[in-house]
């Protein structure tokens, strides 16, 4: 029977040790996408929960379903963008687009929205635009750095 066990030694003798060190150094430089995607996911969770936080479930029934769906979509896009930033950097742009929709949604979806609904939607939308665009920019920059480092 063949000996398939590998002797345990230090990593200095590994043939790809230089490449692994360079890859680790590249991954640790610059800001981490998770630091932007986590607040974006929280914005999505707030958007989904805002009808109950602001108590407009009775006065704006169409906005309740709208906020739950859009909030869940923003949170899902943020989580997916953080899971694989190099391949899913455009998901941040999707979250930013949903943020732009959140800004105009009270007048399009709602019926005679009050000031609380309008202010909440504008603030939530603005945060989603800023954080989504930042996630997309960071993801695209990391993807571009990864492509340029290949030979």
From TrEMBL:
InterPro entries, A to Z: SPW (IPR005530)
Residue ranges constituting the SPW repeat-containing integral membrane domain according to the UniProt record: 40-133
Pfam family membership, one: SPW
Entry keyword set: Membrane, Transmembrane, Transmembrane helix
Transmembrane segments: 33-53, 65-84, 91-109, 115-140
Domain of life of the source: Bacteria
Identification of the protein by name: SPW repeat protein
């Amino acid at each position: 029977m063949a000996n398939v066990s590998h002797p345990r030694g230090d990593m200095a003798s590994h043939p790809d040790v230089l490449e692994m060190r360079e890859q680790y150094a590249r991954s640790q430089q610059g800001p981490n996408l998770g630091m932007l995607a986590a607040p974006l996911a929280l914005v999505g969770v707030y958007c989904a929960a805002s009808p109950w936080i602001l108590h407009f479930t009775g006065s704006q029934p169409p906005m309740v379903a709208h906020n739950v769906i859009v909030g869940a979509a923003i949170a899902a896009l943020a989580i997916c963008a953080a899971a694989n930033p190099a391949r899913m950097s455009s998901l941040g742009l999707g979250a930013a687009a949903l943020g732009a929709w959140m800004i105009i949604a009270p007048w399009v979806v709602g019926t005679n929205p009050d000031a609380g609904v309008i202010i909440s939607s504008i603030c939530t939308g603005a945060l989603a635009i800023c954080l989504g665009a930042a996630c997309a920019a960071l993801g695209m920059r990391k993807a571009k750095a990864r492509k340029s480092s290949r030979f």
